[in-house]
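Possible regression after last week's pipeline update?

I re-ran a chain I had predicted before the update to compare outputs. Posting the input and the new output here so someone can diff against the archived version. Not blocking, just want to make sure nothing changed silently.
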Amino acid sequence: MRAELIAIGSELLLFGRPDTNGDWIARRLAERGVDVRRRTIVGDDEHEIAEAIRRARARATLLIITGGLGPTVDDVTREALARSLDAPLVTDARVREDLLARIRARGYKVLASADRQARYPQGCELVRNPVGSAPGLLHRGPPCWTLVLPGVPGEMRAMFEDAAAHLDVLPAGAAPAARFLVGGLPESEVDDRVSDLIGASGRARVTILAAEGGVELHVLGTGGDREAARVEVARIAAEIRARLGDAVGAAGDETLAAVVVRTLVERGRTLAVAESCTGGLLGGAVTSVPGSSAAFLGGFIVYANAMKVAELGLDPAMLEREGAVSEPVARAMAEGARTRAGADWALSVTGIAGPDGGSESKPVGLVWIAAASASGTRARRLLLGGDRAAIRARSVSAALELLRRALKEEGP
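New output (post-update):
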């Protein structure tokens, strides 16, 4: 089966807004074992949209379009779909009255533009919108099933779940799959260890990608025989675990932060954090995990050196001598946070996230992290690439990975 996605909206082209709808739909289709072979972004131009729809329908078994179903003059997806199908637009009187009733109930003025949302290309079906005003559109296949959904994410997601039940072309149920997050190894080394598994086998496909939290490996069952695909996914997943061992930090839907929190809670341990360059992102990652209050005590955001001294008890002379971004300071921050919070474990992060502040000896991207417990403190030097946001995010992931490995070595 071949699926394609088209996102409509000039804002996606002119202002750099990401196509989050396409990302979400692609994941949902992948869960069912459906490949998205191509994604297209088209501005608010009826002719361009119609041409993109024609080309996609000639290639695909399933086409999902998002955006351009609103009441304004630049919402022309209905007209473009009608043009691509060579079909006239017709009005559903019942949908029109329902739309007008909603508008009046909200106290809004009824404008002529409201009628546009009740129009659809002849031969299509209107798809109910449970949370908004714009109905979706469905043109049944074969050869190509075409589903059109609003661009508002909340509306799109709610309607996709309803519409998917009527897309006979979609495989039923979730496809067998496995996901692994690998920490502490560069993508090149992960690739070297599993390169013969990457690509498509008879019943499963393996992909590798760099992510903020490390390197991700995805195994997705393919083909119509779900049981054969399940067996193949399980075989490949076991091989990945055997080859990567302790480097596998998380699996399935679990995040690295969730693994750390779960381990801390299971062992009855507590955690505190001390952050400089990450400015609260590390604590935020931990507290994003439901139930983290059972292990997480709190944190110290100590951006300025004066705060490192006042809040964590660091020696001003050491700060002057070593500099804020150094191994001794990272160690002292973790130890100070552990002592001040009364925690079993503490993590610290100090670095130069840029774009300014770097030097020849301490360039942008230099980060020191440390993990402290009663048995001692371990530190790690990082030299991270990317922009400021990427460096900060990768610092958080590296700190969590440091703690995950330390907890594993500590044992139950």
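Follow-up from reviewer: compared with the archived run. The mean pLDDT is 92. Marking as no regression found.
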